[in-house]
Design a protein that fits this description.
The chain has a domain at 2-45. It has a 4-stranded antiparallel β-sheet, with no helix packed on it. The chain is built from no helices and 4 strands. A hairpin with a 2-residue loop joins strand 2 (11-21) and strand 3 (24-31). The chain has 89 residues and is an all-beta fold. It is 0% helix and 33% strand. Residues 55-66 have a biased composition (Basic and acidic residues).
């Protein structure tokens, strides 16, 4: 991830990061502008969960799917030449 440098507004790249808690991450950045080279930290945290995954409450037996056909050569048996690709008779 990248952020803008607070000093020169150029792009700063991530040097390292660590989780402070399960939902809070501290990240160290360094400016890519060699004349600036500002190093700074940010805190990234969870704001809102938009949608939670559904919880499975009962065991539903899985259906076994029939095996899929595989292509054995480059185009497979379903490939056919169009009329203009056929060799002249």
């Amino acid at each position: 991830m990248a952020m803008k440098c607070p000093e020169c507004s150029m792009t700063a790249h991530t040097r390292t990061s660590e989780y402070q808690t399960g939902t809070l991450k501290k990240t160290w950045y360094q400016c890519r502008n060699i004349d600036c080279s500002c190093t700074f930290t940010t805190l990234e945290s969870l704001d809102t969960i938009i949608m939670k995954p559904q919880k499975v409450t009962e065991d539903v037996p899985k259906k076994e799917l029939p095996p899929q056909r595989q292509t054995l050569n480059r185009y497979g048996s379903a490939s056919r030449l169009s009329n203009r690709q056929n060799a002249p008779s």
